[in-house]
Design brief:
Length: 217
C-alpha cells in the first residue's frame, strides 16, 4: 500500500513527501467533478475539467504555498497546477472518451489553473481543458467517463447539473448513466478494501464509474 500511495501522490504532485500522507481506507482521495463539454460546428472538441479535492488533500496541496499560507493566490498555485496536469498524462488524465464505439485519442491539456475557495474548508479546484485529437460527433456511440481504475482516487459526478454543454447543437442535453450495481462478490471486495486500505483489484474503479452521454434530437 505504501509504495502505491507514494507513487500516485507523486504523480498527482499534491503531496511533496509520502511520509506526511495520512493512513486512510481506500480510496485515499475524493474529487468532485464538474465538466464543460465544448463543441464546435456541431462536434465535441474537448472537455473542460474542474476537479475539487477533499479538505484533507486541499490542505496538503496548499501547505507552505505563497506569502499567505491561509490564502495562496492563483499565480502562486499555478506551478502546482502545471505539474499536476503534466503528471496526469501517464494516467490519460483519468478520462476515457469513446467516439463511434472506439477510444478517442486525447491531446495535451491547455488552460490549466488551480484555485482555493474562500470558504471554511478552503477546498482546492484544479481546472484544465482536455482537447480531443479528432472532433467527435455527439451520437449514441459517444460517451465519456472520469475515473481512476485503481480506485485510489474516487471521482464523483452524480448530477446532470455538473455538466455544461458549450456551443452544442440546439436541443442536446447531457445524461449520466449510473454504473451497474455491484454484485455480492464485488461488494465484499470493496468492504475488505475499505478495512485494509489496499486497492480492491485492477480496474475496480471502472465498475463504480458512471458514463456521460449527450442526447441530441
Amino acid at each position: 500500500m505504501r509504495s502505491r500511495l507514494c507513487q500516485l501522490i507523486a504523480s498527482l504532485s499534491l503531496i511533496l513527501a509520502c511520509g506526511s500522507a495520512p493512513a486512510k481506507a481506500h480510496p485515499h482521495v475524493f474529487v468532485d467533478v464538474k465538466v464543460d463539454l465544448v463543441f464546435s460546428d456541431g462536434k465535441v472538441t474537448g472537455i473542460q475539467h474542474y476537479w475539487t479535492f477533499d479538505d484533507l488533500y486541499s490542505a496538503f496541496v496548499t501547505q507552505g504555498v505563497g506569502r499567505n499560507p491561509d490564502a495562496p493566490t492563483e499565480a502562486e498555485l499555478l506551478p502546482i497546477a502545471k505539474s499536476n496536469v503534466e503528471a496526469l498524462a501517464e494516467y490519460d488524465y483519468f478520462t476515457v472518451v469513446r467516439d463511434a464505439g472506439s477510444k478517442a485519442e486525447l491531446s495535451t491539456p491547455t488552460d490549466y489553473a488551480m484555485r482555493q475557495s474562500t470558504g471554511k474548508e478552503k477546498l482546492v479546484t484544479l481546472q484544465f481543458f482536455l482537447p480531443l485529437k479528432k472532433p467527435a460527433k455527439p451520437d449514441d456511440r459517444f460517451a465519456f467517463q472520469v475515473f481512476d481504475p485503481s480506485y485510489f482516487v474516487a471521482f464523483e459526478l452524480e448530477k446532470e447539473s455538473a455538466i455544461t454543454l458549450k456551443n452544442a447543437p440546439k436541443g442536446c442535453v447531457p445524461k449520466i448513466f449510473a454504473p451497474t450495481p455491484l454484485n455480492a462478490d464485488d461488494r465484499k471486495i470493496l468492504d475488505e478494501s475499505a478495512a485494509s486500505g489496499l486497492a480492491p483489484t485492477i480496474d475496480f474503479g471502472l465498475k463504480l464509474a458512471g458514463s456521460v452521454h449527450v442526447i441530441c434530437p
